[in-house]
Amino acid sequence: MARKNFACEWTPKSIILTIVIGTVLFNECFIYIIQSFRWPDIGLDDYRNYEEEQVILLVSDPQLQGYQMEPRFPIGAFSRWDIDRYLTRTFGLVYHHVKPDIILFLGDLIDEGSTASDEEFYYAYQRFNDVFSPAQYTKKIYIPGDNDIGGEGRDFRTHKKEERFVKHFENMTGVSTFGFIDYIKILQQVRPHLIFSGHWHKATVFLCNDCMKDDDSSWSVKQRNIEDMTGWMVTNLTEKPFSITEIMVPTCSYRMGVPHMGYGVAIIRKNGELSYTVLWTPARYKMLYGYLVAICVCLLVCLASRLFRKR
Description:
By secondary structure, the protein is α/β, with parallel strands linked by helices. It has helices at 12-36, 75-98, 118-131, 146-149, 159-168, 284-310; strands at 53-59, 102-106, 139-143, 175-178, 181-184, 194-197, 204-208, 221-225, 233-236, 244-248, 261-269, 273-281. Helices cover 33% and strands 21% of the residues.
């Protein structure tokens, strides 16, 4: 009885199909999972007592793209779809990894929130809710930024913009108490030991050991870049009664023109201990460049195939 030999013959079509499928799977699935394996473990069980310790997820500058400054259809529609999809995937993975007790949104929630029409603001608000839908039932605090209500350059802050933000999100100022922590939205006339901020889009820590003293002439602020952070930063906020620690959280959006994106995670315990880290997310522009490389390779395969056929 004759044997039949089966061999896999690589044709130009099969090579191109393999490149396309492999690139899409890596860029849209595997890269997110691989990156999540690099995140440090939270180290707490799901039944922790938020009256004794709280896990805080810090989301800075998502700046969902608007409708006025983006290119016309179809590029503008695609860019909004892609950034929303990126934020949805990264936030979903981060949220389930952290299981936070509370989420702080540190301003600039919507890119054109200050200049948008009421209709555009409503559409962007609906997209915002869809992107961060995994946190639907989690305690949240929203801080308005200049992109949300104005206040930078000629983009003036107005009462109407403030009312619109409050209507869709929450009050702009005040104190929100959760467990043993008071989250204060305004810094005038208060002397906090810990400040969370955004706006610069970069991961940085500022430490001032004597900023709580009445004599402000001796203030000395130390700045530390933490964009290479992979583990936890641990300190005790009560050991130095005159110190102030400011943690600047990086942006979570790849559209902000910085190479590193991520979400901040802080664990604060009742004894004053603070643990902080950044969960870094994939560089989306490198992934998009990967598509260009894949397209060029596919074109070269087609060209080489035609040359061989002519010969």
